[in-house]
Amino acid sequence: MDRSPEPDRAARPHGPSPLAGVRVGIVGTGSMGEAMLAGMLRQRLVTPDQVVCSHPRPARAAHLRETYGIAVAAGNAEAARGAGVCLLAVKPQVLPQVLPELAPVLAADQLVLSIVAGASTRALGRGLRHPAIVRAMPNTPAQIGEGVTVWFATPAVTGDGKARTRALLVALGRELEVEDEAQVAMATAVSGTGPTYIFLFIEALIDAAVHIGFARHVARALVLDTMRGSAAFALQSGRHVAELRDMVTSPGGTSAEALAALERGGLRTVVGDAVWAAYRRTLRLEAQLEGAEARGADDPAAG
User: Fold this and answer.
1) pTM for the full predicted model
2) Domain presence at residue 136
3) Strands 71-72 and 85-88
4) At 202, which helix (H) or strand (E)?
5) Which of 189, 197, 216, 236 is the most buried (most CB within 10 A)?
6) CATH label of the domain that carries residue 236
């Protein structure tokens, strides 16, 4: 899936930003849209006067304006009009209403970068009547610049469009371009939903530590530092995680006893079932959105 041979985090771009002088319109500036905005500004890929965003709630719009010094448009079409990059970050359920607003204002040379879960480039292209689309799936650690984003570009996306996409996504952490769009749906179930699985495991481990006698604040520190250190060790060692597990599992020891309990509880099966459930939900959402756009394209009143 990854075009780069190394699993390490992508390096930050050097030299002039591919987004220098490019107007960026953010349609739907929720938590992930704001994370991308903050990342672009933090990495100095853009200046505040290059960015226009939209959000339906006045209080949220005021927060964005005051916090980042950017312009906030009255509507979605205004945010997208004339933007070299249009970042589409709305909720999937409102997408059928938003696409008809954007379609009339998009120019042929604009890049649309969508982070809408379950929205295929087919559905987006049909709804926007626009060919140059990138579909991306970031995850929540992107909010602190430690995320990973899997993305797919349609053939109409130019080299400049891909460079702008990489620059924007590197501001969130690591980026992986794939040639098969189906892998973006797979990533939704693994890296996109992955923090949910990990947070649940962290919560369970903290609760277990409290149960055996630790104060909750101590348990939280122990678990989070153990999780962080283990992930860092796995990344730096380059070894298979099974080998790392064997390193800390002595015959007849505490780790061996704990692993036996986890295996009896079916941990691997439960995790596999969770990933498959998330993947199937992503595919159902894709089908629903494609069906909605197909119905809209067949409606003589649409457009």
Assistant:
1) 0.86
2) yes
3) unpaired
4) helix 194-211
5) 189
6) 1.10.3730.10
